[in-house]
Structures are given as structure tokens and as C-alpha cells.
Specification:
This protein is an alpha+beta fold. It has 2 domains: 121 residues; 108 residues, LytTr DNA-binding domain (OB fold (Dihydrolipoamide Acetyltransferase, E2P), Beta Barrel), CATH 2.40.50.1020. Helices cover 51% and strands 22% of the residues. The chain is built from 7 helices and 11 strands. The strands form 3 sheets. A 5-stranded antiparallel beta sheet has the order 6-5-4-8-7, with helices on both faces. The protein has a 3-stranded antiparallel beta sheet with strand order 1-2-3, with no helix packed on it. A 3-stranded antiparallel beta sheet has the order 9-10-11, with helices on one face. Helix 1 packs parallel to helix 5.
């Protein structure tokens, strides 16, 4: 009877141990899935910034040695060791965990590259004859380049001034806008604040530029010499 009781107790203990291991494995799987979910949320939220992707790439790259083995001294392993479930895994289990994180990162990174490509195509990528296509609020608008007098920087926006008196405020950096307009040959980046269509200028005065329609544009004295030189070169 004693032997049977001991045997039953042993079996019961084994059963409890197995069930405990199964629960720990399930817990580890859930925590791993949660980490992946958090990472995906972070990638979605910060996909505008390449800095986040670069930082994640560095952390993931450090996780493995040159021979492909797990680098237990890496920043990623140090972060994951803070999780009890990760710490209880075997070396193979740890590598599998990290492999899944890397796979999710690569999937997200591919999506990020596709998004950047779409952004390049949809914002200011299309030139046709005299026009460029710019995103204005939530729609795209074809703008005749020859009708632009000048553009003036306002924080993260550029205000366009046209020959018909129309003004248009568009969210775009001066650097990106000039990169597009410079292909047409008549635009001069006058300092950091202005992009001027030389074709519409009648003369450069001591205080700025005068346009053919009589409009005046006051400019800092520090940029006038460069504007005069560009104006002379354009018409000669």
C-alpha cells in the first residue's frame, strides 16, 4: 500500500510538473506575441521616422555573432532578459524568440520602404510639361510652374505667389520644393526663405526684387549679391 501511495504521489507530481511547464510555455508564447504586437504598433506609429528603424536595426544586428550564434552580451538579449519567460528558455528557445522578432521587423521594414516609395510618387514626384503635382491638404493639385512668381517659407510650409495674385500655402520643405523646381531652370533659392522665379523679375533693387507686374519683394541685403548674379546669368 505504501509503494502504491508513493507511486501515485510520484505520478501526481510529474503530472503537476508537466502542467506547470505547459503553462510556462504558454505564458512565454503569449508574452512573445505581446512583444511582437507592441513592436508592430511602434513601427506603425513611427514609420515616418527613419531614425526608429535604424535604431531597431542596430539592436537586432547585435543579437547574433558573425557565425550566426546568439550573442548573449547583446543589447537585445539584455532587454529580453528582463522578461522572466525569456530567461527560462533554452538557448534554442531564445534564438527562436529572437528569430521571430527579426522576421516581424523585416516584414515591417519592407512595408516602410514601400510606403516611402509611394510617398515619393504621390507628393511631388510627377512633372509633366510646365506642371508639377503637389499635395494640397487632402488632394493633389497640378500647378503651372511658369505662373509661380516666388515661394516664401513659413515654418514647415511654403506660401506660393502666382502671377494672377493667387496665394497658396502648402506643407513642404524649401529644400524639397527647390529640388523639384530647379529642374525647370528659372528658379533661384534666395537664402533660406525664398525661391524666386527669375523669369518674372524685371530688376534687382537695393532692397530686393521687382517683378514685371510691379510687385515688390523685400529681401535681406546678404542675399542680394547672389540674386543679382543669378539674374544676370539667367538673361545672358
Amino acid at each position: 500500500m505504501i509503494i502504491l501511495a508513493n507511486s501515485a504521489g510520484f505520478c501526481f507530481g510529474v503530472k503537476n510538473a508537466v502542467e506547470g511547464l505547459e503553462k510556462e510555455a504558454q505564458k512565454a508564447q503569449e508574452q512573445r506575441a505581446k512583444q511582437i504586437e507592441i513592436m508592430n504598433a511602434q513601427l506603425e506609429y513611427q514609420r515616418d521616422s527613419g531614425e526608429f528603424w535604424a535604431d531597431v536595426q542596430k539592436i537586432l544586428d547585435s543579437a547574433f555573432n558573425s557565425d550566426g550564434s546568439l550573442n548573449n552580451n547583446s543589447a537585445l538579449v539584455a532587454l529580453l532578459k528582463q522578461d522572466e519567460a525569456f530567461g527560462g528558455l533554452s538557448e534554442m528557445g531564445k534564438e527562436k524568440w529572437i528569430d521571430e522578432l527579426v522576421e516581424e521587423f523585416i516584414t515591417g521594414m519592407n512595408g516602410f520602404e514601400e510606403w516611402k516609395m509611394d510617398k515619393a510618387k504621390n507628393s511631388i514626384a510627377t512633372h509633366k510639361d510646365d506642371n508639377i503635382v503637389l499635395k494640397v491638404n487632402d488632394e493633389y493639385r497640378s500647378i503651372s510652374v511658369s505662373k509661380i512668381y516666388y515661394c516664401e517659407a513659413e515654418d514647415k510650409y511654403q506660401r506660393f505667389y502666382f502671377e494672377n495674385g493667387e496665394r497658396l500655402l502648402i506643407r513642404i520643405s524649401g529644400t524639397e520644393l527647390y529640388r523639384q523646381l530647379s529642374e525647370f531652370g528659372s528658379f533661384y533659392h534666395c537664402g533660406r526663405a525664398h525661391i524666386i522665379n527669375l523669369n518674372h523679375i524685371s530688376r534687382v533693387t537695393q532692397s530686393g526684387a521687382e517683378f514685371k507686374n510691379g510687385m515688390q519683394l523685400s529681401l535681406p541685403h546678404t542675399v542680394l549679391a547672389g540674386l543679382r548674379s543669378a539674374f544676370f546669368d539667367y538673361f545672358n
